[in-house]
Amino acid sequence: MEELIEKAKKGDKEAFTDLILENQIKLYKIAKARLKNEADIEDVVQETMIILYTKLSKLRDNTKFEIWLYKILINQCNKKYRKNKISLLSLETIENQKTYSNEENIEDKLNYEEILAMFKEQDQMLLLLYYSNGYTTKQISQILNKNENTIKTKLRRMKEKIKENYSFYN
Fold it and tell me: 155 in helix, strand or coil?
């Protein structure tokens, strides 16, 4: 694969096409885990391919190609998700409901976008990778090029911050 990447970096269109074909199904599956609309999935995969084409020459370490590619895809998925503004709960409902019983599914009550807005973009990605896409902390550490313990610590701190802001989450 590294030889194929190197050829594509040098402008070999056939090599680039082979790279796309080799990764297309993986990209589709990852996008489908994040987005449900088929047209959105196709758009995000296509946008990822365009970015790949324009930025491939900037990739320094060919062995990290897949992780780099997945980062691009995840960023595009997140942009599409935010653009669609899917909201689980309106602010008005949060104001009207002061407490929730422990039996209720709290995840159904939270406004996911409001929670994400509490954090920096890098931390938002971490939450999305972990909770929405189901990646392990080890996988996330590889995707984000960060120590796994750092990822675990950040997740714990973000969870604590969410608990502080939503008293019913305790």
Answer: helix
Indicate the pTM of the whole model: 0.54
Assess contact for 52 and 72: CB atoms under 8 A.
yes
Burial profile 111-150: b = 16 or more Cβ within 10 angstroms, e = fewer: bbebbbeebeeebbbbbbbbeebebebebbbbbbeeeeee
Please list, in sequence order, all residues whose beta carbon lies within 8 angstroms of the beta carbon of residue 85, skipping any fewer than 6 positions away. 113
Q: Which residues contact 116 (CB under 8 A, 6 or more apart)?
A: 124, 127, 128
CA atoms of 143 and 60, how far apart (whole Å): 15
The Cα–Cα gap between 74 and 47 comes to: 11
- What are the pLDDT tens digits along the chain (170 aa)? 889 899 999 989 999 999 999 989 888 888 887 787 899 999 999 999 999 999 999 988 988 898 889 889 988 988 888 777 543 333 334 444 434 333 344 444 456 667 777 888 778 778 877 877 778 899 888 887 789 999 999 999 988 888 887 655 44
CB atoms under 10 Å from CB of 30, counted, come to: 21
